[in-house]
Amino acid sequence: MRSFTTSFFIKRTKKLLNGECPIYCRLIKDRQRAEFATKVSIEETSWSSATEKAVGKYRKAYKVNNRLEEIRNQIAEIERKYEIRGIPLSVDHGKSALN
């Protein structure tokens, strides 16, 4: 069974009132994709698109990176549950299970 490809990105066009950009998660599987907001935001200058993480050695960066890692772990757990049950998993299942 093929697993999700998970990536994180910021939406520069949807800046919040405090000037930060919201971080979104994109799930891709079998050419289908779904995106959802992680409910986490970061300053545009503190985001690395290459590593898909917050950069810097300050508290906010650690908190953001920890939350993104939690989301990755939740996605992996959802995949394992569906695989154990033998149920086909789509990106919509993954997205709805996280919300």
Overall body shape? elongated
| Percentage of β-strand residues | 25-35%
* SSE topology string: EEEEEHH
Give the neighbour order of strands across the main sheet. 1-2-3
**What's the average pLDDT?**
89
Q: Keywords, please?
A:
99 residues; alpha+beta; three-stranded antiparallel beta sheet; two-stranded antiparallel ribbon; 2 helices; elongated
Question: Which helices and strands, and how do they pair?
Answer:
Layout: E1 5-10, E2 21-29, E3 32-42, E4 47-48, E5 53-54, H1 59-85, H2 91-98
Antiparallel strand pairs: 1-2, 2-3, 4-5
What does this structure look like?
The longest helix is centred in the C-terminal third of the chain and has 27 residues, at 59-85. The chain contains 2 helices and 5 strands, in the order βββββαα. The model has no long low-confidence stretch (mean pLDDT 89). By secondary structure, it is of the alpha+beta class. Strands 1-2-3 form a 3-stranded antiparallel sheet, with helices on one face. The chain has a two-stranded antiparallel sheet with strand order 4-5. The chain has one domain.
